[in-house]
Amino acid sequence: MSSTNQTHKLCMIPGPVEFHEDVLAAMSTLSTSHVSADFISIFGESIELLRKIVFTAKGQPFVVSGSGTLGWDMVASNLVEPNEDVLVLNSGYFGDSFSACIETYGGKVTQIKAPIGDKPSLQEISEILKTKSFKAITITHVDTSTGVLSDIKEIAQLVKEQSPKTLVIVDGVCSVGVEEIRMDEWGLDLVMTASQKALGVPPGLTIETFKQRKAPVTSYFASWNNWLPIMNAYEARKGMYFATPPVQLIYALNTSLKQITSVPLEKRFEQHKKMSKYVKDTIEELGLKMLPKSRDMAANGMTAVYYPAPLTAADLLPKVASNNIVIAGGLHKAIASQYFRIGHMGISVTEPDRKHLEETISALKVSLKDLGYTANL
Amino acid sequence: MSSTNQTHKLCMIPGPVEFHEDVLAAMSTLSTSHVSADFISIFGESIELLRKIVFTAKGQPFVVSGSGTLGWDMVASNLVEPNEDVLVLNSGYFGDSFSACIETYGGKVTQIKAPIGDKPSLQEISEILKTKSFKAITITHVDTSTGVLSDIKEIAQLVKEQSPKTLVIVDGVCSVGVEEIRMDEWGLDLVMTASQKALGVPPGLTIETFKQRKAPVTSYFASWNNWLPIMNAYEARKGMYFATPPVQLIYALNTSLKQITSVPLEKRFEQHKKMSKYVKDTIEELGLKMLPKSRDMAANGMTAVYYPAPLTAADLLPKVASNNIVIAGGLHKAIASQYFRIGHMGISVTEPDRKHLEETISALKVSLKDLGYTANL
């Protein structure tokens, strides 16, 4: 057992989040063949359960070993052909990176880049959609670097009305399982997420687009030509080999998906909204300023907050850690040193008896006081 | 806890192998920030320890989340420029796949394809090296589909003499930690391996080649432009972000690397040779035929064996499993139904008190007998 387990500090950052004991136990599942009946059943069921998380009946989940970033490679290498135009809505650092990924595979990126703490407006999107025929539009649902939440339902509606052939791609890394996402009802073509691995969840339409592409797929590991037969096989409860799946992680995923789908998702979303309100109300009461321009564009799974002058990361983060809570520094390159981030997702929210958020807020208050910040304490 | 833990069958396939209890415990390390001091220290140390496994002082390890297949994408997208020639030595299924990966990224593949159970000869390699200027040669050290072991030392020597600019790339997925690999001494330019994730271990020379490439890197997630600063940062014991690393897997990797490097590697290689001899001697005594043409080209971490007529996979594999041992079916597409594979790597070999191999051989004998196979039983 690693030494960190003996003095565990709560990991209250916008991912990795705190894990349920049963999920961690599944991580140490004894070695099992990736083509054994036991594992095939777990993998197949996980693929099915993923559809429920984003309310899709026809979507084709992909469960592939890799970081969330690999999901971008899947989008860029499978759905965008060289020289096709892609509209990237930029509400923070991850818009920049997704753009770089698309350009690597030959896509031509047009960005609407919002000021830090803001998001592209519907009007801006509408105007730019008139200028070109875009193969796809990408939306960072929650930009983890700013905590800004985009309204994917409204944007999808606009795109479907104005440019119905444009694929609506949602980067849901920091939102799937936290925010409401109705793939089929809202007309989303692809939703990707991650949990140390990339989960891409494209519906039939997207697969059709993929099947109609003319240029060869420009990645090997990320290619749906390689992965689609594997997903179909496991869902049909057959084993098939392209690359060895991360067996233990998929047992853990299965455990987590069963937990998540055991209560109505609507309740889960409400819980996240409620806990987010509790954190953000407290931050405002303390007189601290948040990154998102307004509360209605703030994510429900995380909170990004400016340090109150003259405090810095070097003061606050170690002080909070000394109170056994780990929060995160800034990530947006332009202002990374000026703010911190608190994650409030998963069991820290859905199992309030654990008191994770209370302990986090308490540690934050004590730390601020110890550092001489007194406004509203 | 998953139900498989209660009726665990030994996983004696050529990967995933049986894991040490301490490695599994590390898999359930409580959530830890990927930029925390604790994790940075574990990640940095793991990068250093990897050099020891392949005897390199100057090599640059990359530890990236993904299947072993992603290692091919790293080679093909970072080291090979479009239209450059690559010589692929094919000793089984994995030579075909590596070729497909290189071609995806624009490399021009020439293959020397050995008959099943054989490997390209030094003479064939020497002759083909005279025909073109190859950017790289790839060698599957152990082809997991056939159990054929290639002599990377001899091949590297030949290439360095005859075509010194050609990069020597070793696919060590089924050999690193089992077979002797001396990167610096033998002049290997890149060794890749996997353990539910790709570990690429290129030395300084390869990084130089990478830095001199003219065409842009054609992958995003696999690009060393993105990963090199991260590896340098963690080794210098600083956190840095490109994509979230698989924290728990890296704790497990660290635990395993410390175990492996706690005894001289020479002893480890000898143990694997000895246990491989025990398995192969038994197979021969039973009158069964192995895939590799001769014992001197058979891998030490696995054994591939033809079913004795009239037995098939449908007879033998479930029967062995009913004796609590999981062995693997065939993987080489041309003859997949005709043979089975036993893995003998890691703790099943280095900790003989566990009796994994004895139990496996015993289960195999009992199963063959039950199925009516009597020759030499």
UniProtKB/TrEMBL annotation, chains A, B:
Binding site for substrate: 341
Source species: Ambispora leptoticha
Record family assignment: Belongs to the class-V pyridoxal-phosphate-dependent aminotransferase family.
A single GO BP: glycine biosynthetic process, by transamination of glyoxylate
GO molecular function, one term: L-serine-pyruvate transaminase activity
Start and end residues of each Aminotransferase class V domain: 18-339
The name this protein goes by in its record: alanine--glyoxylate transaminase
Transferase in keyword set: yes
InterPro entries to which the protein is assigned, alphabetical: Aminotrans_V_dom, PyrdxlP-dep_Trfase, PyrdxlP-dep_Trfase_major, PyrdxlP-dep_Trfase_small, SP_NH2Trfase/AEP_transaminase
Cited PANTHER family: ALANINE--GLYOXYLATE AMINOTRANSFERASE 1 (PTHR21152:SF24), AMINOTRANSFERASE CLASS V (PTHR21152)
Residues with PTM N6-(pyridoxal phosphate)lysine: 197
EC number assigned by the record: 2.6.1.44
GO CC list: peroxisome
Keywords: Aminotransferase, Pyridoxal phosphate, Transferase
Cofactor(s) in the UniProt record: pyridoxal 5'-phosphate
Keyword DNA repair: no
